[in-house]
């Protein structure tokens, strides 16, 4: 998928208003500028940011059932803003973005303020381990931690209805197989639209 195809894919799959599109572009411009000061995404992927990061994040919304499409979403290790910022712009959720590194926290807060998404997104600037538990509708984590560790750290935010959306790249199936049978049966694997070899673990519980 090239950059033009990525933008076309977004327009085909979501109803994106002018204001939302503007926010996406503003966010990417702030990200590009910040890349001079901190290493937020790889230099190679920066040239394909719509395909490698925006579509890769936005596709998670395709797995959200209608009935929870305006709930609370916890994004673990949001880093450069993926998927948290994209979900906040395109989805109807309130997104809590957890990030522990000070410069990334400042970057995320600047993005939230600059593109005016404070009503849809909050930056939780701390380690996940020290956050108080609260129940959420959706948990996402992209390049955050190996699956077993990820679940151990975050299951206290889940209920039996929580939807898990975990882009796991080429390791999706292997990481799933390493889970205990009880946890394994929570998930199935969906193919990523940005990379046929990459999997997204979609689960409930
Ligand atoms: C590899 S980056 C991925 C960033 C983003 N999700 C993406 O896909 O581009 C992982 C991020 O998780 C953050 N992180 C790692 N462990 C954390 C923890 N225990 N609590 C909060 N944030 C954490 C790191 O600071 C880093 O920004």
From TrEMBL:
Binding of S-adenosyl-L-methionine, residues: 77, 82, 128-129, 142
Gene3D superfamilies: Vaccinia Virus protein VP39 (3.40.50.150)
Superkingdom per UniProt: Bacteria
Gene Ontology terms: cellular component: cytosol
Catalytic activity: guanosine(527) in 16S rRNA + S-adenosyl-L-methionine = N(7)-methylguanosine(527) in 16S rRNA + S-adenosyl-L-homocysteine
Residues in coiled coil: none
Record flagged with keyword Coiled coil: no
Single Gene Ontology MF annotation: rRNA (guanine-N7-)-methyltransferase activity
Entry's localization field: Cytoplasm
Statement: the UniProt record of this protein carries the keyword Transferase: yes
The entry's keywords: Cytoplasm, Methyltransferase, rRNA processing, S-adenosyl-L-methionine, Transferase
Function: Specifically methylates the N7 position of guanine in position 527 of 16S rRNA.
HAMAP family registered for this protein in UniProt: 16SrRNA_methyltr_G
Name of this chain's protein: Ribosomal RNA small subunit methyltransferase G
């Amino acid at each position: 998928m090239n950059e033009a195809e990525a933008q076309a894919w977004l327009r085909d799959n979501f109803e994106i208003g002018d204001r939302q599109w503007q926010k996406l572009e503003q966010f990417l411009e702030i990200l590009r500028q910040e890349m001079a000061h901190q290493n937020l995404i790889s230099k190679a992927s920066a040239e394909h940011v719509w395909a490698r990061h925006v579509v890769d994040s936005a596709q998670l919304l395709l797995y959200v059932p209608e009935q929870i499409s305006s709930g609370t979403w916890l994004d673990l290790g949001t880093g450069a803003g993926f998927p948290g910022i994209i979900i906040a712009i395109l989805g109807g959720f309130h997104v809590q973005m957890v990030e522990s590194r000070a410069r990334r926290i400042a970057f995320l807060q600047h993005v939230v303020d600059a593109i005016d998404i404070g009503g849809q997104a909050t930056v939780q600037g701390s380690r996940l381990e020290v956050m108080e538990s609260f129940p959420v509708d959706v948990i996402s984590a992209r390049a955050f931690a190996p699956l077993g560790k990820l679940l151990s750290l975050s299951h206290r935010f889940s209920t039996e209805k929580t939807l898990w959306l975990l882009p796991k790249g080429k390791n999706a199936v292997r990481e799933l197989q390493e889970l205990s049978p009880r946890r394994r049966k929570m998930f199935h694997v969906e193919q990523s639209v940005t990379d046929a070899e990459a999997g997204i673990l979609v689960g409930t519980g």
